[in-house]
């Protein structure tokens, strides 16, 4: 029987629990059915956050850094960049030769946005630009690449549930997750950060050692939690 892992943030909204040891089955280790992800080093991660008009986003950053470090990712963090700087840093990161030795890559892009892109300090960078840059990474062919966009895609009424839009491209081994469907505005608590990042971090800490990512993301679609 698998013991339930209790996961709660502290009074400042930070998750501090450590990741449980995974014991994958032979089926989960089958390279014909699953990506090879049993190495201690899971890959490199690109984390970008826009802080303007986004109180509580610093909590998101710290929680993401903690959880993904626990999983086994090495994280490169940037904040408040111009559109050109973000594009340049994405291109540099995507071209790192170290990716050749890594089993996966993760990108977390957080900020205010529109239906087509994420706002930087001067102008937006389109989602398509980011997705194309990631899908064409030279050293990541045939390996899983994941992009998590956290932010509104249009101004509209406040959502009552954690809406998640997932797109999977088998051709480029790319998973793209938007924390809200187009037309919704995500909640954010000054203390706990955004609801999607809260739920994602909680779900990863609780179940990453026993569950697959798609199942955990489905759990993040649940009703709003009490703040």
From TrEMBL:
- Gene3D superfamilies reported in the protein's UniProt record: 3.40.50.1460
Question: Would you kindly state one Gene Ontology biological process term found in this protein's UniProt entry?
Answer: proteolysis
Task: Give one Pfam family.
Answer: Peptidase_C14
Q: Which UniProt keywords apply?
A: Apoptosis, Hydrolase, Protease
Q: Which GO terms fall under molecular function for this chain's record?
A: cysteine-type endopeptidase activity
Per UniProt, residues of the Caspase family p10 domain are 164-227
Q: Which residues form the Caspase family p20 domain?
A: 48-156
InterPro entries this protein is in? Caspase-like_dom_sf (IPR029030), Pept_C14 (IPR002398), Pept_C14_caspase (IPR011600), Pept_C14_p10 (IPR002138), Pept_C14_p20 (IPR001309), Pept_C14A (IPR015917)
The family note in this entry says: Belongs to the peptidase C14A family.
This chain belongs to the protein called Caspase family p20 domain-containing protein
Taxonomic lineage is:
Eukaryota, Metazoa, Echinodermata, Eleutherozoa, Echinozoa
